[in-house]
Amino acid sequence: MTKEQEMIRTIQVESPGQISPAKIKDTNDPNQNEVEVRLELAGICGSDMPGFKTGMNAVGQKVPGFPAHECIGTVLRSPGDASLIGKKVIAIPNEDAGLRERFVAQRLKTHVLTEDLNIQTAILAQPLATVLAAVDRLDDVKGKSALIIGLGPIGLKFGFVLKRLGVSKLVGVDKRDRSTAPFAEIFDEITNVVVRDKFDIVIEAVGHNADVVNEAIEAAAPKGTVLFFGVPDDDFYDFKFKRLFRKNLNLVANVQPDWHIYLPKAEKFIAANPPIVTGK
After folding, report:
1. For strand 18-25 and strand 7-15, is the pairing parallel, antiparallel, or unpaired?
2. Which of 43, 72, 78, 112 could form a disulfide with 35 if both were Cys (CB 3.0 to 4.6 A apart)?
3. CA 77, CA 206: separation in Å to the nearest integer?
């Protein structure tokens, strides 16, 4: 059987919310700057939600294996660097099409795992990398007050990292009761109400919700900073620009970090801070 005739297993979104296993022709052909990886574990991110709802990527295409960008596996082919073959890696698949037996990723978005972590733990380096990159955009947070809106896995990671970096007060907001969430005890307060004009730093970690954007602006203290991290669904939001303007706020957005920098940082952070995985 030729390479062109081989079939690989994948997952396809057949209709909104409906996924099924399938087989497709193996068309993987990594170039000098790419690797081919055999998938061993994939994680699902909140930013994947629109893809599971529609079955289509950002340009309206249905791609086998989409959506999944948190992936761990073993390198099978690496035309530009043979030393990577056989290495366990965490990688960001091309087109976020990671739900397939074998996928292709750019080498710059591929990190060879070096710490003594099982793959269920190591895969957390991908979302944590995005958090570390975002926090680096905030300059020095020591001694500042911080509010995190949305205490899902990402919001909790933000809380853990900010506490390690020395924020003076850490408050979390979520519509659900998150008082028993992992390491909830690191928060000085967890509530379901956003207080206005109070926090030096406000992190919006919800996404897919225009109302939360304006809640973040209201919560920031004058001359504070608002970090928008949650992925938006729409090109245009009904945005309280005058409030942002009059409060002299700093507005920061962060997505798609430099993976070759932040995946290694995240893996080392996990190894040095086991409670971010165990919650204890």
Report:
1. antiparallel
2. 78
3. 37
